[in-house]
């Protein structure tokens, strides 16, 4: 018997369904659509032109004009959401600029709503870290610890200010106990029952937030380990999920995404509401650095990384690649 005579009685041949690009598209179990994507953006007070970020090539701090252009582009590309972060010129111990109707974030929300109306979900980060001179997500007590309950009172007022500026959805990211319930109550009391809450349910204390600190001109001293989740913990994420649901969360989030796909899968399996995940700054920066050095195929890595987040259970994905990926997806579909 020679090699040409060798045969096997194989009934199952999974490779049949991988034989051509058309076949692979036909049987694909997971698909990403532009409407699944949320673009996080930074608007900085005092800028006349967008300012590039050295640690996140391709990402900028926006001026008000460029912010509106980015929002219009998000609508044109069919993105699902547009998440705003504000970077003020002045900060204080209690983050006063976060409550100012004319503060940078609230002005940015109004400008985006004027530009796009209801054509994309306008989302706003609800946290104090960009607005405090110490860089923490809440106010500090006399011992320098984050005071959970004093912070909640400010979060409630922030929520109302952002709703009045025009945000469709608020994203409380500070990981304070009770934040969703307090914000929900404040919104309802102010007549904003239709404004929804995307709870940062499982936000871990991660090493991958580094480039974000540049994006918001962070003044953080110390760390956030007393309020963000310990990366070692899995069951705690389900406790946080149940708490946020009980407090009225309309959607929930896992952050970061790529290092926590196991958590994302468990949250998605347990959640009765839509689930988001945030591909954060450090995850973006790693792909950019590796591709710049020629170590990976940039487009293939971007596509695969976002697909993996969708496959793990995310209904929507915050990613700095949202607009670029949406263009590729439209090209794939001949649009």
TrEMBL record:
Binding of 5-aminolevulinate 1, residues: 213, 224
Q: What is its EC number?
A: 4.2.1.24
Q: What residues sit in the active site?
A: 203, 255
Keywords in alphabetical order, please. Heme biosynthesis, Lyase, Magnesium, Metal-binding, Porphyrin biosynthesis
| Pfam families per the UniProt record, alphabetical | ALAD
Which positions in this protein are listed as binding 5-aminolevulinate 2?
281, 320
The record's Gene Ontology cellular component field reads: cytosol
Q: Name one GO biological process term.
A: protoporphyrinogen IX biosynthetic process
Listed under catalytic activity are: 2 5-aminolevulinate = porphobilinogen + 2 H2O + H(+)
Q: Which GO terms describe its molecular function?
A: porphobilinogen synthase activity; zinc ion binding
**Pathway the protein contributes to:** Porphyrin-containing compound metabolism; protoporphyrin-IX biosynthesis; coproporphyrinogen-III from 5-aminolevulinate: step 1/4
Positions with a binding annotation for Mg(2+): 240
Reply yes or no: does the keyword Metal-binding apply. yes
The cross-references to InterPro entries, in alphabetical order and at most eight, read:
ALAD (IPR001731), ALAD_AS (IPR030656), Aldolase_TIM (IPR013785)
Q: Which family does the UniProt entry place this protein in?
A: Belongs to the ALAD family.
Summary of subunit composition and partner proteins: Homooctamer.
Its biological function? Catalyzes an early step in the biosynthesis of tetrapyrroles. Binds two molecules of 5-aminolevulinate per subunit, each at a distinct site, and catalyzes their condensation to form porphobilinogen.
What name does the UniProt record give this protein? Delta-aminolevulinic acid dehydratase
Query: Which organism is the protein's source?
Result: Kocuria tytonicola
Gene this chain is encoded by:
hemB
